[in-house]
Amino acid sequence: MSARTGAQYLEALNSSRRDIRVHGETVRSDIASHPAFKGVAHAYAALYDLQHDERVKDVLTYPSPTTGEPVGTSFLQPRTKADLAQRSEMMKLWSDRSLGLLGRTGDYLNSSVMALAAAQDWFAQVDSGFGKNMRSYYEHVRDNDLLMTHTLINPQANRSQSAGAQRDPYQAAQILKETDSGIVIRGARMLATIGPIADEIVVFPSTVLQARPEDEPYSFAFAVSCDTPGLRFLCRESLDYGRSHFDHPLGSRFDEMDAVAIFDDVQVPYERCFMIRHPEVLTRGKMYSETGALAHMTHQVVLKDLAKTEFMLGLISLICDAIQIESFQHVQEKIAEVINTRELLRAVLRAAEADAEVNQWGLMTPAWAPLNTARNWFPRTYPRLREIVWQLAASGLFGLPTEADTKGETGVDVDRFLQAASLNGIDRVKLFRLAWDASASSFASRQEIYEFFFFGDPVRMAQALVGSYDRTEVKERVNAFLNSDGPLAPLAGPELLAAATGVRQGG
Known about the structure:
Blueprint: H1 6-15, E1 20-22, E2 25-27, H2 38-50, H3 57-60, E3 61-63, E4 70-72, H4 81-97, H5 106-118, H6 120-124, H7 128-144, E5 148-151, E6 174-178, E7 182-189, E8 200-203, E9 220-225, E10 231-235, H8 251-254, E11 259-269, E12 273-276, H9 279-282, H10 286-291, H11 293-323, H12 329-354, E13 357-358, E14 364-365, H13 368-393, H14 408-417, H15 425-439, H16 442-452, H17 458-468, H18 472-482, H19 494-501
Parallel strand pairs: 1-10, 5-8
Antiparallel strand pairs: 1-2, 3-4, 6-7, 7-11, 8-9, 9-12, 10-11, 13-14
């Protein structure tokens, strides 16, 4: 096979047999026709269709090394900066199409599995078969253009206790038993965003996994199809209310369903296992950092964040045009905040890509420090972007009739009394309903919370940043000044001088 079309994706989704629980209903087939999933499934299908658009297919696809057929560029294992640039262009193009509001498009986990496969020897340190399984799985999802979701964390219960010390030891997914053909998993995992509409679910170790003997049954990495017997998805309430794109322009298109993945004695074949037990190897996120997968995943995320910021900047600018408020100083100050956010993200990406280096697994990998800064900073910045939207739209967010009110006699009132300086009443309502969905609706709230916890607890992320950031040079520079009697801080050695001036040794 090769890069899929949207129709092929939807056909595969509708023909699969799964166990999805949503709104008190069990959904087993025709998933893409169900009201809770139809909008977002068709948004994903449109991204697959884009791979066949003559204008961009050379950016979005490349020849598979095994079949020669075109496959998605997010599977490309970059060996050069040109490869990395193509991946970047592809991921930004996809993010722009969804305004940065789809957080689990295929390129996110494609980037992860791509990097993990390059680092197959990391998995082989325990068992050579695990390395081969990782490589084979990557080639399988690449050449069939499969959509993956993943799940990393245990259900919230007693957070002061380990998974094995909970009242129900099988609340969190664990290895029930090992068999001649693989393992059997019982329990639940959070949080499988897009689980109901994905082809595959990758179950990776939590980044807070510890190397304690009692954690061994909860230590694993594997993947199964989303229609595997015994696997079911327990969904949250849908934020697609079945209304028109006019009424809910974002929620009707981009509500990526979040679900709890429940493993009811699911049998995982050995060839789909990438690690069984060995918490000392999987502990504290080593699988992501030591393989380089985290850098490539974060590269995709920051590109998505840039697209999202650009959407907010465009929306804010149109609001200002519509009601002619940009001349006010406080409005300009707010717009400047959004512009600064965009430019800082652009700078981060430029630095990460310019300073990319080949890692130990042979992949051209974007520099981690700028990406790590962005992933710590943006979750706290995004709420401000949302706040600026509703502050500038102000009371205009409350006088918003629905699309049905724009017809007939009521439509005359809408067009007359809700007009703006540069828009008729109906177009103004349409714009401000978009502002509502971006800043004040349930969809908007979910976006903010999702961004805040995208990589986990921000406090823990900050701890990791502080613990891993090398501050030796800057401390030595200050110490050198303290121990100097001259009018200026003394010149440092070559390494410190290069750091201070931004000049790398050797050019």
